[in-house]
Amino acid sequence: MNKTLKSPREFSDLIDSVCAIDAAYFEDHPEVEVYERPYTPGEFWPYFFSLSSQVRVTLIAPGIRTRQPLLVVQDIDKYGDN
Asked: Which of 11, 22, 58, 80 could be a cystine partner for 7, CB 3.0 to 4.6 Å?
């Protein structure tokens, strides 16, 4: 059986909105190929990240972009002593 994971409509709309914002950024800044912005909850549906995370957006070619979450690791004791 072939099942595909479809995002609920509200996430599809949110993802479309985030992608439009990224497209507009590159149109307004043609000299830029990479930029970072705050993470929008739900944009990587079905995955969710810390609200303090950032997203690195890379322009591959006109109209083609990648979005990479930059995760913020909080409350980690570097010696393992919690």
From this structure: 11
Q: Residue 39 region, left (φ>0) first, then alpha (ψ -120 to 50), else beta?
A: beta
Q: How many angstroms separate the Cα of 45 from the Cα of each of 12, 22, 40, 78?
A: 9, 17, 10, 30
Q: Which two three-digit tokens encode residue 34? A: 């990479």
Helices (runs of H) and strands (runs of E) counted in the chain: 1, 3
What pLDDT digit, counting tens, does each position of 25-77 carry?
999 999 999 999 999 998 998 888 888 899 999 999 999 999 999 987 664 44
- The Cα–Cα gap between 24 and 63 comes to 10
From residue 69, alpha-carbon distances to 19, 35, 62 in Å are 14, 12, 21
> Which residue ranges make up each domain of the chain?
9-70
Give pTM, 2 decimals: 0.76
